[in-house]
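Complex 338.
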Amino acid sequence: MTNQLKQTIKDMVVVGKGILAADESAKTAAKRLASINVESTEETRRQYRNLILNAPGMEQYICGVILFEETLHQKSDDGILFPQLLEKNGIVPGIKVDDGLADLEGHPNEQYTKGIETLSKRLEKYKKSRPRFAKWRAVYSISENTPSELLIKRNAEGLAKYAKVCQQHSLVPIVEPEVLIDGIHSIETCYKVTGKVQKAVFEALKREGVMLEYTILKPSMVISGKQAANRANAGEVAKRTVKCLKSNVSAEVPSINFLSGGQTPQEATAHLNRMHILGEELPWYVSFSYGRALQDPALKAWHGKPENVEAGQKAFLKRARLNSLATKGLYSEEMENE
Ligand code: 13P
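Predicted structure with 1,3-dihydroxyacetonephosphate bound:
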């Protein structure tokens, strides 16, 4: 079991590379496709996945892709199952395994992540597609009375139990506590909430006996609310994010791969880059696991038209390359105009 986990970590923690989140549920995929006036059907979702997962040379920048269950069974235009296509290109396939959100009792505005009761059975079912890692996302919103202590506790326990079950099945768990960007809160408030959430998650992981050296953390950045009046600059985001992680995340964790969470593609790249030029020693590899920040420009360039596939792939590869540079602190804004 540990040999497999060790190999997966080796294949997924590679300098200059990051993870692509392409695990939008059918519902979220429909939203993304609607934004370019494309109807969401099994076939249009396949066509879109085909564009992204077949982008030539993406393996220079991407070492792993998180897939949604439907994509495990779909094939590329060349008739190859998507997980096999990725492995063939030297990219590790993974699978989103949380079962979405459920209402938190007594807290009308909060939802916890469900799916733990059926997890083991589902992992057995996914085995034939040979995913090598998994992802589970928990969400927390910031407002006057959220997140509640109950939500922080419930989600921490869920993430820890999930991580333990994954490792028992030889899958590397990606642990994703996402503090949402929506709201008018200050970066200071985000710092406090994110610290509290991360602390609870790591206490729960340790209590559960999760092997942290075979675990990847996918956090949100410490950032001002999207609707805040005075939003903190990139330097501040980088400084606070690293400080928060250093206070709460064990150095045993090999890799931290951020989500983009509604930042613009440029912001997400610039923030990651800044973390690498702070001059601080980072005890983990620090990279990306972006969904929207890697894919949105590709969606817009494609617009559901076969003649735009190449343009879509180019747009995706550009973001992948710039984020790869950001993991080394080598990105600059001028590169956006190249
Ligand atoms: P975003 O980068 O679009 O936030 O997606 C990452 C993800 O995996 C959300 O679960």
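Residues 21, 137, 176, 259-261, 290-293 surround 1,3-dihydroxyacetonephosphate (CB under 6 Å).
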